[in-house]
Amino acid sequence: MAQYLIRRLLYTFITLVGISVISWIIITQAPGSPIAITMDPKVSPKIVEQMEKNYDLDKPIYQQYFLWLKRLFTGNLYSFKDGRPVLDKIGERIWNTLLLNLVSILIIFSLAIPLGIFSARRQYTFLDNLGTFGAYLGISIPGFWLAYLLILGTVKLFGYPVLGMRSFVTEDLSSLEIVMDRLWHLMLPSIILAIGGIAALSRYTRSSMLEVIRQDYVRTAKAKGLPEETVYYKHALRNALLPIVTLFGFLIPGLIGGSIIMETVFAWPGIGRLAYQAVLARDYPVVMTINTISAVLVLIGNFIADMLYAIVDPRIRYQ
Amino acid sequence: MNNPLLEVRSLTTQFFTEDGVVRAVEDVSFEIFPGEILSLVGESGCGKSVTGLSLLKLIPIPPGKIVSGELLFDGRDLMELEEREMEKVRGNDISMIFQEPMTSLNPVFTIGNQIMEALQLHQNLDKKEARKRAIEMLDRVRISSPEVRIDSYPHQLSGGMRQRAMIAMALSCQPKLLIADEPTTALDVTIQAQVLRLLKEIQGEMGMAVMLITHDLGVVSEIADRVAVMYAGRIVETGPIEAIFGEMRHPYTKGLWESIPQLKEKRRRLNAITGQVPDPMNLPAGCKFHPRCYLMIDDCKKEEPPLYPVNGEHFSRCLRWKECC
Questions:
Q1: CATH superfamily, with its number, for domain B6-82+178-185+215-316
Q2: Which of B88, B108, B153 minimises the CB distance to A225?
Q3: How far apart are CA B285 and CA B301, in angstroms?
Q4: Which tens digits make up the pLDDT trace of B264-276?
Q5: Which of A158, A221, A301, B129 is the most buried (most CB within 10 A)?
Q6: Whole-complex ipTM
């Protein structure tokens, strides 16, 4: 087990290095430069040259990469856009993003798995077909479109703002009302962020469950005289969840991608929105750092999924 | 003779598929007496496994359905029981072991956990007592160091051990009837003999009745008391083992017997039964075996023969049973 862990961590590290190198190449080689975007064409070439020097853009690409890496780890990385330390900019926003994503993950798992089981037990009935229809709808509808629709709807219906993390005027509210206000603002973006995941995961749970209940050991469990609920929720579910936990790892990239869109739509002060603004400004240090953090999150997600897999499947544990 | 433990009357089980109705079991009647081993023999698809599953009402519904019949067990008709009451019968009064020890145990639970489950459910034992009983059961099926093996997962055991664990699980609540569906088919030949001997021994010790489902007449001759040969969902010949092996009165039983390699005789080739098992959705008229039968006459195609009494408990569903010997 320890050996497996070490090997796994080593692979994770190599993957991370690969990701950062490839993203560095793509980001810096993409059209547009940080200077051209902020600069007036009338500015003298001398100043442009000076700025390129300041940003190290005159150096070869591999040197730029190592400089970024060095500065990232020594804390000397500054944003092109406003000169603030990149880690500060990210640090003040990353918790907002993590909160949003964590809530979404909780929503996804707590809704998708029961929904999948519900559908599986009623295969091909009206409710199951309704679930299938809903799932395809959830997968097909673009999140940003649905987000705008829901913003319009809720604001019209409740007359209460939904953008940002909280309402602007909170001085005269009680502490309970402030908590409610925060939850209200958290609710809509996290639900919309979760919809695609719920749709996909509930389908996976359904098909996994349907496959498992045809297995011989489910028949054995029934032959033992176990009540149907025990057969379903103990013997079948545990096996059906094996492939589902690995999806946990795949869920995170989708959520991070979704974060960028949802945070922008909902004016959510997280790193997704920061990344979006940084990409538009070709703010390489910020884009790269957020990219790396996302990669780390994804890899951690995969790592957790692998660990979960080993916990739920004894056959993996001992190999 | 004392009262039968289980009396099956006119059991008919069908599967309603998109392509048509599969008549898996048709009007099957038999009895099992306390402490005896009845063997249900036949080729794959003859309905023997469906019969076994029907007794526990474990036929998947839909597409399957027990269309008619009575299952009188210990004075009650199982057909009349609600699902909740049937759950109390399964694993407790009647338990079942299956062909594939590889897939019949749940891979994510230890065998101890799976054995204890039935004990806690039916015998109201707490965890500690159930564990003790599970260890005893594992010991009883000759699994060495049972107190260690109890915490093994199925994948850590060999096929023979898994089947022993299955047997321990099925017998943990001391059922009155054990349905063993091809318990040795998936095992190595040497292990087959061991498991059969074990089954016979435990059956003797515990005094339960066994319904042994198999395709292997060799297995039958070793441990059964009575035999029912099935073909195309029907019992075609039934009787005590001495009577059947003394004089086979159905061409199908003879065919089955002759298709087993015999050590004593020096036959170059095995005599396989010609033709194929009929399509259960499209059974021939009259005797279901007539297209493959060497004794076939025109009358065989007309009407399905009843079970003719041959001698005492020995019955044959063959018009020409007198000539078949």
A1: P-loop containing nucleotide triphosphate hydrolases (3.40.50.300)
A2: B88
A3: 6
A4: 666 566 777 777 7
A5: A221
A6: 0.84
